[in-house]
Specification:
Elements lengths: L9 H24 L2 E6 L15 H11 L4 E6 L2 H9 L5 E5 L8 E2 L4 E3 L1 E6 L17 E4 L2 H4 L2 H9 L3 E4 L2 H9 L5 E5 H13 L5 H4 L3 E4 L5 E7 L2 H16 L2 H13 L2 H6 L9 E2 L4
Parallel strand pairs: 1-2, 1-3, 7-8, 7-9, 10-12
Antiparallel strand pairs: 3-11, 4-11, 5-11, 6-9, 6-10
Helix pairs in contact: 2-9, 2-10, 6-7
């Protein structure tokens, strides 16, 4: 009696069935674990968060890191206090731009983004700004709540300096500096670069304005932010994703994308008058 070589014996068939069932179970578990994560975002902070297009360095970083484990992010734009409240109530799964200790009963990610606040002046003014005390006798325009966020020494300067003011709309800081209505603006260097280009594209700054060289005086330490999640597993998945996009070059590509967005290279190529301005001295991404 000859054996049918095309027909597997019963033990082989059972083995294959078990393998298939195991594979399907594994796939099903992975699909079940993938989730839509509701993330609270309190402000539009270009180029980090651009609410109008639901984009920005932080939002794309968030999406790319979560996608490594199959998750997607649903962005919920809410006032800052409400993001905290809704996270505590379980109506959100996470929020961005948090420091250790700001919230209880959450799981903090690794450092996700670093801001660099600077005291920004115009080179032609030839200011020496090596520390916060050097701002005392100058017209200083800062972002909203800076006096409570940038440390005790800065708060003391803000209180004593009659020329100090805060602006809710950071684009106004850029106008005021470039139009010589302020000596110094205090803001993150990338936010400054983003709004400088937008002001030019909207016709609010001229090519002559852009030829002025701005200087970033790094008198503030970098500010590192984490993301906070209600789920330890989602936090861990985000950290894994963040590590992967850092190692595989995706994060560098993302940073380059937004560097070009803030650059004047394209406009310089299209214009016979405008040369690519350096925008800001003492700058590194």
């Amino acid at each position: 009696m000859t054996q049918n070589l095309n027909k597997p014996n019963s033990s082989e068939a059972r083995c294959n069935r078990f393998k298939l069932m195991g594979f399907l179970t594994l796939c099903g578990a992975q699909l079940c674990q993938a989730a839509e994560i509701k993330i609270g975002v309190s402000l539009s902070i270009p180029p980090y968060v651009i609410q109008e297009t639901n984009s920005g360095i932080e939002l794309e970083l968030l999406n790319q890191a979560l996608a490594v484990k199959g998750h997607t992010a649903s962005i919920q734009y809410l006032p800052l206090a409400r993001t905290f409240h809704e996270l505590r109530e379980g109506k959100l799964d996470g929020i961005i731009n948090i420091k250790d200790g700001m919230l209880d009963n959450v799981f903090y990610s690794n450092v996700a983004i670093t801001y660099q606040n600077c005291a920004i002046s115009l080179e032609d003014n030839n200011f020496t700004i090596n520390n916060i005390d050097d701002l005392n006798n100058k017209q200083v325009v800062s972002f909203q709540r800076a006096s409570s966020l940038l440390g005790e020494e800065f708060a003391k300067m803000a209180k004593a300096n009659s020329g100090y003011q805060e602006q809710a709309r950071q684009v106004q800081q850029v106008y005021m500096l470039m139009k010589h209505r302020a000596d110094v603006v205090v803001m993150d260097k990338n936010i400054f670069k983003y709004y400088l280009k937008q002001a030019y594209l909207e016709g609010k700054l001229t090519e002559k304005d852009l030829k002025q060289q701005a200087i970033c005086h790094k008198i503030f330490p970098p500010t590192e932010y984490k993301f906070a999640f209600l789920s330890e597993q989602i936090r861990d998945d985000f950290n894994v994703g963040l590590k992967q996009i850092t190692q595989d070059g995706s994060l560098v590509a993302l940073q380059e994308k937004y560097r070009r967005l803030m650059s004047f290279e394209t406009e310089a190529e299209a214009s016979t008058k405008l040369t690519e301005p350096k925008i800001i001295k003492n700058d590194s991404y």
